[in-house]
Fold this sequence. Notes:
Mean pLDDT: 87
Organism: Limosilactobacillus reuteri (Lactobacillus reuteri)
Low-confidence stretches: none
Order of helices and strands: HHHHHHH
GO molecular function: DNA binding
Pfam family, one: HTH_3
Radius of gyration: 18 Å
Largest sheet: none
Keywords: DNA-binding
Protein name: Transcriptional regulator
Amino acid sequence: MSLGNNIKAVRKEKKLSQVELGKAVGVSRSTIANWEKGKASPATTYISKLANFFNITTDYLLGYTPTPQFTRKDERDVQKIVKNLLDDPNINKYDEEDVRLLQASFEKVARTSKLLAKKKFTPKKYRK
């Protein structure tokens, strides 16, 4: 998804109007509308403000990761875990559809584990 689509999706998920979001980050409703339509792009300071306001990473907002709390490094870690699991020689005995289902399951478990670990091991002073 594009930056504008991500802003709109997160805004709607949080049940905010464009006016409310604009007030929160210090821009007008029309600016938010232009960002969402792709007619303009927010400056990096506003991307950071949006990410902080929504409590998500800038990587997610920019479309680099599919999980709101993941950085690119977290995403690489998940893909590495899944690749290692799929490299098991016993995987070859399953058909292609089963392997895809296993891959999806492995990704879900790796993402969930990573999120739980982040929550558990992040010092309180860095939690939002």
